[in-house]
Amino acid sequence: MDQKRKDSASRSRRRFLTDSTAIIGGAVAAAAAPAGALADDKAPSNGNLPPNVPEWMKAPGADVGSQPYGTPSPFEKNVIRNIPKNQPQYTSSASRTPIQDLDGIITPNGLFYERHHGGIPEIDPAQHRLMIHGLVDKPLVLTVEDVRRFPSQSRIHFLECSGNPSYTAMKGKTASDLVGLVSCGEWTGVPLKILLQEAGIKPGAKWVIAEGADAAAMTRSIPIEKCLDDAMIVYSQNGERLRPAQGYPLRVFLPGFEGNMNIKWVRRLHITDEPVYSREETSKYTDLLPSGKARQFTFYMEAKSIITRPSGTQKIEKGFNEITGIAWSGHGKIAKVDVSVDGGKSWKAATLQEPVLTRALTRFRLPWTWDGSPVVIMSRATDETGYVQPSFEELTKPRGLNSFYHNNAIMRWQIAANGEVTNGNA
Amino acid sequence: MDQKRKDSASRSRRRFLTDSTAIIGGAVAAAAAPAGALADDKAPSNGNLPPNVPEWMKAPGADVGSQPYGTPSPFEKNVIRNIPKNQPQYTSSASRTPIQDLDGIITPNGLFYERHHGGIPEIDPAQHRLMIHGLVDKPLVLTVEDVRRFPSQSRIHFLECSGNPSYTAMKGKTASDLVGLVSCGEWTGVPLKILLQEAGIKPGAKWVIAEGADAAAMTRSIPIEKCLDDAMIVYSQNGERLRPAQGYPLRVFLPGFEGNMNIKWVRRLHITDEPVYSREETSKYTDLLPSGKARQFTFYMEAKSIITRPSGTQKIEKGFNEITGIAWSGHGKIAKVDVSVDGGKSWKAATLQEPVLTRALTRFRLPWTWDGSPVVIMSRATDETGYVQPSFEELTKPRGLNSFYHNNAIMRWQIAANGEVTNGNA
User: What domains does chain A contain, in order, with CATH numbers?
Assistant: First the structure.
């Protein structure tokens, strides 16, 4: 067949190729080789390769537009949000992104992690309002369409829950069980600075109290400096409008700050001279130290990384394996990710996928040949400020073990002689 | 209430703030202000703003994880693929991305444009094989898992049908009707170069004939230079596995080349010394010139742009409007987008959203104040090679009007005195 095809191709060239710049005579073009010339039943001449014409080539497939809004292949039905089992209720709960099943840095909207405190409201955008008031010259009540008329901006940033993972969750089975409360997308909206300028900030304004339109009326205090820097009021996520679970139709977005402060379904921005001390910045989202005092207003998510492949519940084979994972920092760009394949004795710099973006997931990769002996693998991120992701011991030495949030410790995977990967945290 | 809240906040500060570094006593933190402190029924003190506590704040919303794989808000139900009406069949047809409804540069997977010639096959990845044969030292038959073991790469690139739009489609109503056969995503896969090196290319190899596992056995010839440059065999799109309509489980990806060559559901790569002259590179996907000859192997998608807001069927109001749209070039990065709001008499440089990526959509924006008089607006892209997007007249002068593909002409929108936007192409 190969010879036959070659002859056919030669004939084609003689028939159709009229000059060296690959211009063909249009009139005879319709007589060219039919589609599917290669879809024959014969093996190619070099090697006994199975042509293996599968069933799905023998009849037309599904119609164009049979899914006006597309969904994944049925064969990917297990790639879903990681939802904790046997919770007493799911109104205030979380689901995790299946990071071990994903590639690259963009999280598809259907798999964004969730953390809600009063369930997901279904909001009619035509009825929704954003009020800006307090220490302003001109209080504003804006519709969603009003917000969309202001100058816009699009930025790729991660979003992460500050309890990712809690100290007690360090024994999770999968990468998602451990740090699946992180996702990354392209966010489009209005710089918050522009809206505040529109209202006119009065002297003495130091905080913006943001309130969500959910049943929890989630409320957090944001320093005015962040609001005048890179904060946004966002309406789109990966091109389309925000998903309901992500704050449709409007949310606060604070690049690099803990997820809870990025108020979803935002309905009110109250400009004040002091924070409101809401539940989520006093009894929750603070870190109890050994001294009995608590760290409060711990805005930034520090540098973190995790190997997503190979990772827990996966199985590898001897020989070549690419080690890959994600790294991120609330303080800016990832500068370096080191990987160890000997339990932390030695480290090797991984390759970072370009472009490395500020406050975005960064994909890292390291080629590796596994000899079949049991090993512990781990990654360690360094951000552009020079900050290095700590071990759990380094992290908890000053902070103690009473804390819950802001655990950015190095995560370890144990690979057994049979290739099975399990949690390797102590 | 404002005063009341201020008093309460002051009390909070007195009660909880123990030093200037914002450390609070952990033991008493649990007694802090309850969530929803701002969700009262009273108007704020400055201005008679409606507090307008909506229904959806008065009862818990949907459970976390109620959508294991999330979907858009029901209020966005009209943001779907743009499917042509009254086609004789939809096995070989196209659907368009609703670009006028999208922001940023990432197209969500559910809204990627489609162009199929034999419908969408439903492929079991465990049964799928990729064969590499022909002018190689060692023919290969790879499983999907084999392909995933090779070193990987992630890149954000656009994908565009070469008939976007056909010359006769220049009277479409919406931006999607005109150039909605373009989408952009983050693609992850193996550099094709690595797979070809694995097989070992023999001297004389000049083309790679790629064949899809669909009922059309879509077959195209790719120059070996592209295959050894930035071509990929892709398995993931925006983080998750390829959607069936995008080639699940494996597709060819050729950054900047016309969509049809990016063979979906790829099952075979035949390395040859000459092209196969399949139907889609002879009778189709060639450009018939006035001379009767046709341009063939017109791989690259040239620089193009379109204003997506304001655009056809939208309506604007007097005063400030942000003009925004997308630009892209198969030859590299977009260097500049000029916008005219006076029918092409004068042009002003738009702002390009960073990062500007090679062979990716680039979002451009221009602030504009509309005085209410009828105008024609349009955009004109220049890429990093210096190539400037032509007017339809400039494009068709050498090429004539018999062609169908590779129309990258400037698109015009007419804005009437009442703010209604319609197609302004001649």
Answer: 2-52 (no CATH), 93-295 (3.90.420.10), 304-423 (2.60.40.650)
Q: What is the ipTM of this complex?
A: 0.89
- The pLDDT of residue A49: 45
Closest chain A residue by Cα to residue B129: A52
The rounded distance, in Å, linking the Cα atoms of A290 and A135 is 38
**CA quadruple B350, B351, B352, B353: dihedral sign:** negative
- The closest of B317, B262, B311 to B112, measured between CA atoms, is B262
Q: Rg of chain A's alpha carbons, rounded to an integer?
A: 27
Q: How far apart are CA B154 and CA B186, in angstroms?
A: 6
B63, B147, B148, B264: best mutation site toward chain A, by most A Cβ within 10 Å? B63
Q: A44, B215: Cβ pair inside 8 Å? A: no
**E strand segments, B109-224:** 114-116, 130-134, 140-142, 153-160, 182-191, 207-212, 219-223
Asked if A112 and A125 touch (Cβ cutoff 8 Å), the reply is: no
Q: How far does B272 lie from chain A, in Å, by closest CA?
A: 9
Residue in B2, B13, B14, B57 to test binding to A, most A beta-carbons within 10 Å = B57
DSSP secondary structure, B48-90, as one string:
-------GGGSS--BPTTSSSS----GGGTT-S-B--SS-S-S
Report the C-alpha gap between B80 and B94 in whole angstroms.
13
B401 touches chain A (CB under 8 A): no
Answer whether B298 touches A (CB < 8 Å). Answer: no
Q: How far apart are CA B275 and CA A34, in angstroms?
A: 13
Which class for B200: exposed (0-12), middle (13-18), buried (19 or more C-beta within 10 A)?
A: middle
| Yes or no, beta carbons of A63 and B128 under 8 Å apart | no
| Contacting A residues, span 265-294, partner chain B, CB-CB under 8 Å | 267-268, 270, 272, 274-283, 286, 288-289, 292-294
State the amino acid at position A39 in one-letter form: A
pLDDT at A169: 79
How many beta carbons lie within 10 A of that of residue A370, not counting itself?
A: 18
pLDDT, tens digit, 9 for 90 and up, residues A334-388: 999 999 999 999 999 999 999 999 999 999 999 999 999 999 999 999 999 999 9
B247 within 8 A of B203, measured Cβ to Cβ? no
Strands in B172-290 per DSSP E: 182-191, 207-212, 219-223, 232-237, 240-241, 251-253, 266-272, 287-288
Contact A214/B57, CB-based, under 8 Å? yes
Concatenated DSSP letters of A23-73: EEEHHHHTTSPPTTTT--SSPPSSS-------GGGSS--BPTTSSSS----
What does the pLDDT look like over A262-288, one tens digit per residue? Answer: 999 999 999 999 999 999 999 999 999
Q: In what order do the strands lie in the sheet with B304-309?
A: B304-309, B319-328, B362-370, B351-352
